[in-house]
Design brief:
alpha+beta, eight-stranded mixed sheet, 2 helices, 8 strands, globular
Length: 129
């Protein structure tokens, strides 16, 4: 069953946000090497742990791209972003960002539901280019 596998936090000031979430929750936030990202993208990976110290849902942080419209986005793991993108449209949702490769990791699509809530679809694929 599809489940949340990643979250993304947009930030107007990444250093300030990193400090806030690190100090608040103890999250580890590290810059992702540029060779693992689309050209020109800066991204910080967030590692979280549960109360027992086990790895939990991880996320990312990046510079906010759409002021006043970009909130935290949850990504749901699916077998095929193409198949689920079609389902989103059939059910009245909107594709906001079409299928995009994250080289060596997978593909993502950003959507909105019928209530204009943003969410992402994620497909693992180490051959993504």
């Amino acid at each position: 069953m599809p489940t949340i596998v990643h979250f993304e936090i947009p930030s107007d000031n990444v250093e300030r946000s990193k400090k806030f979430y690190s100090d608040l929750f103890g999250w580890n936030i590290e810059k992702v090497p540029s060779d693992k990202l689309p050209e020109g993208v800066e991204y910080w990976g967030i590692t979280t742990k549960d109360h027992e110290g086990n790895n939990a849902v991880n996320g990312g942080m990046m510079k906010r791209m759409m002021p006043e419209q970009q909130g935290i986005t949850n990504y749901i793991d699916v077998k095929s972003v193409d198949e689920y993108s079609e389902k989103v449209k059939q059910l009245g949702g909107i594709i906001k960002v079409p299928k995009m490769p994250i080289p060596g990791m997978g593909y993502l699509v950003v959507c909105s539901d019928t209530e204009n809530n943003t969410f992402g679809l994620w497909q693992n694929d180490t051959t993504a280019k």
